[in-house]
Amino acid sequence: MMKFSQKKIVVALSQLALLISAVMVSQSVYAKWDEERDMTTNGKEELIYYYKTNEQGQKLVLDKYVKRLIFIRPDKFYKRSIKQIKIDGVPVDVNSDPFSRYPEQTAIVFENKDEVLKKLFLAKKIEFNVLYGRDEALSTFQIK
Question: 2, 34, 126, 133: most buried by Cβ count inside 10 Å?
Fold first, then answer.
């Protein structure tokens, strides 16, 4: 028969093991996205951004600070519009806004930011249609 203090130790050790395994699993989730570090303008804080680049040279940046996606496509078409993205085949309505200073970048924002960010971190495939006036192009990002 175990004493009360021995039971407490066993419970504490099992909780610690569970915590360590949860941290390891969460690290593997973030490992699917590439990581980019940047310093704030005052140089006091380091910011971490997650990104993916596809075969066409387009870049998708996950900005967890402002809770948005940034789609980067350097091309001759500066005005672009994105109304919907698909996360693992599930459509999500979004709004897009091109940056005035950086015309190759478009901010993609969504209504339920926390829920969509969680889905993006866990996604295996993100795809969306980009409208350039009347022209349309499909962009796909595989996250492995």
Answer: 126
- Tokens, residue 130: 């980009």
29 Rama class: left (phi>0) / alpha (psi -120 to 50) / beta: alpha
Query: Using one digit for the tens of pLDDT, what is the confidence trace for 27-38?
Result: 444 448 899 888
Residue 28: its H or E element: helix 4-30
Half-sphere exposure at residue 86, Cβ-oriented, CA atoms within 13 angstroms: 13
